[in-house]
Write a structure and sequence with these properties.
flat; mainly alpha; single chain
């Protein structure tokens, strides 16, 4: 029974993550970034727009990553599988600030390091 509840929670979180990105991009981010009065941070509005966009989508990725962890727990995965899911989620989150700010927002380094450390920990046990 508890496994079923975890799977349902995982499905809900995946749906939330996907809808959050799609609907947020369509109804919020696009309109927000189209404004002329967007603050200029660290040299320009392009950087500000990139931070807003990647921060929005990292929320979605983290929801999907949590869903993966819940599903792994529901299906009896050992700790390594769970740590790998967290590591992959962190690495996916590292990609967004690289893409949207050309690496100028240093959160990519923290997400990347955390992801690599998780994967190494899972491999060496």
């Amino acid at each position: 029974m508890s496994s079923t509840l975890l799977v349902i929670a995982a499905v809900l979180l995946v749906a939330l993550g996907v809808l959050h990105s799609i609907l947020g991009e369509r109804y919020i981010i696009r309109h927000l970034l189209g404004r002329d009065d967007l603050p200029s941070v660290l040299g320009g509005q392009t950087y500000t727009a990139g931070v807003i966009r990647f921060a929005w989508h990292i929320t979605s990725l983290l929801a999907i990553g949590i869903a993966a962890v819940l599903a792994l727990i529901a299906f009896g995965a050992d700790w390594r599988g769970i740590v790998i899911a967290i590591g992959v989620t962190c690495l996916a989150c590292a990609v967004l600030p690289v893409v949207y700010t050309r690496g100028r927002h240093l959160s990519w380094a923290v997400f990347g390091a955390a992801g690599v450390l998780c994967l190494v920990a899972a491999i060496i046990g």
